[in-house]
Amino acid sequence: MRTVATAGHVDHGKSSLVLALTGTDPDRFPEEKARGLTIDLGFAFTTLPSGTEIGFVDVPGHVRFIKNMLAGVGAVDIALLVVAANEGWMPQSEEHLRILELLGIRHGLTVLTKADVVDDEMLEIAHLELDDHLAGTAFADAPIVAVDSRSGRGLPDLRDALDKVLAAAPPATDRGRPRLWVDRVFAARGAGTVVTGTLAGGRLAVDQEVVIEPGGQHARVRGVESRHQKLAVAEPGSRVALNLVGVEHRDVARGHAVVRPRQWHGTSLVDVAVSMLPGERIRKRARLQVYAGSGEHNVFFRALDDAARFARLRFEVRVPLAPGDRLVLRDPGSKRTVGGAEVLDVAVAGTAREAAARLAMPLLPRLLAAQPWLRIDDVRGPLTGLATEDADVAIDAVVATGTAQRLGPWLVAREHVDDVTARAEALVREHHAQHPLEPGMELPALANQLRLAPERLRLALEGHGLLRIERGFVRHVDHRGRASDDPEAQRLLAALVASPFAPPAPAEVGVAPAVARALVREGEAVDLDGVLFAADALDQARALIVAALHERGTLTVADARDVLHSTRKYVLPLLTRLDTEGVTRRRGDDRILGPAAG
Predict the structure, then answer these.
(1) Integer Cα distance of 377 and 383 in angstroms
(2) In degrees to the nearest 10, what's the CA dihedral of 57, 60, 63, 65?
(3) Judging by DSSP bridges, how do beta strands 2-8 and 78-84 pair with one another?
(4) In sequence order, which residues have a C-beta less than 8 Å from that of residue 35 and are 6 or more positions away?
(5) First and final C-alpha spacing in the chain
(6) Largest Cα span, the chain
(7) Can you tell me the distance from the alpha carbon of 506 to that of 516, in angstroms, rounded to the nearest whole number?
């Protein structure tokens, strides 16, 4: 099924045309029928000669109901622009055409209705007038078909023309990311909440979990219907009714969207490219009404450059948008359509001052310019609006050109990686100069100075030619960082080895405390309650104490002092360490063999 919207001035015969084509009167309300005036959206279906099924969305033509008109055309990509032959081009003909263009609708045709009301000469004049008004627009080359809904004149030609337009138009895109902008919601007896809309971006199936935005309400699709037929799956491009479980109908309204969980980035702040209508202007900062999908939103508009080519829009609620979405801008004061906008960034970062230069870039480079670290899963949909396959192609392209690189689950701007690694190298070199005996700079400390998460820094430094990450330290390849290689450290270590159970303090050997700490860090020495021992001394003490216990069964501190030929000052910290290891156990004032004695 394809969905087609009508457009045009009030009383130009849009609803009558839909009735003639489908046999269904799209005017649903008694007030509409009584006044002969379409107030809200109407819906009808038909099958063309080719077998293509069409769902029509009939929109109001009166300026007072422009909000409803915008709700009907926000999700379609094909339109019938309707102009009455007896009245010709009118104000809403112009505004509706501009709205179609602002929404990026490039496929459709123009219908000259009420052809039997005028003579052939007037019909020809109306046709020429249309040519003038459509020149230079998206509908300049679209077919123009004259019809009369009451007599049936021209209806076969219109059906054939519709078939040709639909055949030439690209099919509805399936990105695997469905979004249904709700244009009608009601409670059905025995079914509960039902919403309708034009489905775009992907399929929706029975029993799938969905989310209603704004608000993030979760629901389940209990039933799918299109053209009054129950379906298992609804295809993109079709008019769809969804029966939802888990949400009350009073909690859903026109302008809400039904989407799949985690596929869309709900946002209240977007950067956009602005397209102004001829003769219209917007102040640098202004309050506007923005139409997204089927919804109307009050926003704060802020121009990002002097020419107002780019702007930042702040919504009052979070809306599921993606780059490429088209918006219509209206001035609430003058009640005029002033322009349109294309969404460029839904995860706005950085200052407004820097935004304009970034927004002129292609999609992925501009996103990376704002956020140098992008999760690849977010690039595959929520941040870009791309299907997974298209996102992977785009990712491969920026990697191939050197704009970005893959680091684990991230796509990272190459300039950022180069900057991080250059600054990291400078900081590590500085650390080596100030602390030559240390093995390097602790990774968390380095990450903190670079204002980067440690895991991201680790990824950025992997494969770096000059920096190495070892045991949680970052060092330069030229830095050995072994305290035991330093002459001062070797002097202290020799003194400790020479007197293993009565070692001198570092100060007694004329060695700085930093050298002692470096030896401990490298495992060449151990610090037991403030007393520095050679690492081998602990191993020797362990062996001597265990041998004595096997021989005697128990040892007092005094006995251990004799075994080690030392004093209480040094024996106590050694015994405490052996207790901690489980080599010995205290029993009163005695030590006995512990479970780890072997």
Answers:
(1) 9
(2) -90
(3) parallel
(4) none
(5) 80
(6) 129
(7) 7
331 closest CA partner among 298, 307, 284: 298
Alpha-carbon distance values, 444 to 135, 433, 453, 522 (Å): 64, 19, 8, 19
Q: Is 319 exposed, middle or buried (0-12, 13-18, 19+ CB in 10 A)?
A: buried
Nearest-angstrom CA–CA distance, 358 and 367: 8
Integer Cα distance of 111 and 121 in angstroms: 17
17 token code pair:
């045309």
Do residues 302 and 284 lie in contact, with contact meaning Cβ atoms separated by under 8 Å? yes
pLDDT in tens, the chain (598 residues): 899 999 999 888 899 999 999 999 888 888 877 777 788 888 999 999 999 999 999 888 788 888 888 888 888 889 999 999 999 999 989 999 999 999 999 999 999 999 998 999 999 999 999 999 999 999 999 999 999 999 999 999 999 999 999 999 988 889 999 999 999 999 988 788 999 999 999 999 999 999 999 989 999 999 999 988 999 999 999 999 999 999 999 999 999 999 999 999 999 999 999 999 998 999 999 999 999 999 999 999 999 998 899 999 999 999 999 999 999 999 998 989 999 999 999 999 888 888 998 999 999 999 999 999 999 999 998 999 899 999 999 999 999 999 999 999 999 999 999 999 999 999 999 998 888 777 889 999 999 999 999 999 999 998 788 888 888 888 888 776 566 566 778 888 899 999 999 999 999 988 888 888 888 877 889 999 999 999 999 999 999 999 999 999 999 999 999 999 999 999 999 999 999 999 999 999 899 998 988 7
Query: Angle at the Cα of 283 (from 282 to 288), degrees rounded to 5?
Result: 60
Judging by DSSP bridges, how do beta strands 2-8 and 53-58 pair with one another? parallel
Domains and CATH numbers, the chain: 2-168 (3.40.50.300), 179-259 (2.40.30.10), 485-593 (1.10.10.10)
Beta bridge partners of 240: 197
| Residue whose entry in the numeric block shows the structure tokens 């009640």 | 335
CB 582 within 8 A of CB 595: yes
In this structure, the number of other CB atoms found within 10 A of the CB of residue 510 comes to 10
Kindly write down the DSSP assignment for every residue of 100-153, as one continuous string.
HHHTT--EEEEEEE-GGGS-HHHHHHHHHHHHHHHTTSTTTTS-EEE-BTTTTB
Separation between Cα atoms, residue 491 and residue 506, nearest integer Å: 10
The half-sphere exposure of 185 on its side-chain side, counting CA atoms within 13 A, is 19
Tell me the H-state helices in 505-567: 506-509, 513-522, 535-552, 557-564
**Which pTM value belongs to this model?**
0.79
Task: Find, among 163, 312, 180, the residue nearest to 243 by Cα.
Answer: 180
